[in-house]
Amino acid sequence: MVGIAAELLEESVPLEFPQGVASGDPQPDGVMLWTRAVPLSDEDSPVHLQLQVSADSGFSTVLLQEQVHTNTASDYTLRTYIDGLSPDTYYYYRFLGANDTVSRVGRTRTAPELDQPRKVNLGFASCQSFEQAHYGSWARMVADDRAAAEDDRIQFVLHLGDFIYERCWNRRQDGSPQSRMVPPFPDGVDTPKNRIAVSLADYRHLYKTYLSDPHLQEARARWPFICTWDDHEFSNNNFQSYSTYGGETVLDAQRKLSGNQAWFEYIPAVLDELKGQPAHNFRPPSPGPDEAEQNKAALESLRIYRKLAWGKHLDIVLTDNRSYRSPPSMPPGLADQLGLPSDPVELVAITDAGSAYHDGKPPAVLPYGDGNVPNPARDRKPASMLGLEQRAWFLSTMEASAAPWKLWGNALPLLPMRLDLSTLPFTDYQDSVFNLDSWAGFPYEVDVLMTHLGTQDITGVVSLSGDHHMHGAGTIRRSTTAADAPPVAVDFTVAGISSSPIFDDIVAVAKKDQSGLAEFVYKETGSGLEPVWHMSMLNGVFAALTYSKTGLQPVADWLGPNAANPGLQYVDTMANGYGLATFDAQELRVQMITMEDCRPDFTTAPAIKYVASFRLPRWHATDTPQLEGPTFTGGAPFPFEAPEV
Question: Which of 399, 420, 398 is nearest to 409 (CA)?
Answer without folding.
Answer: 398
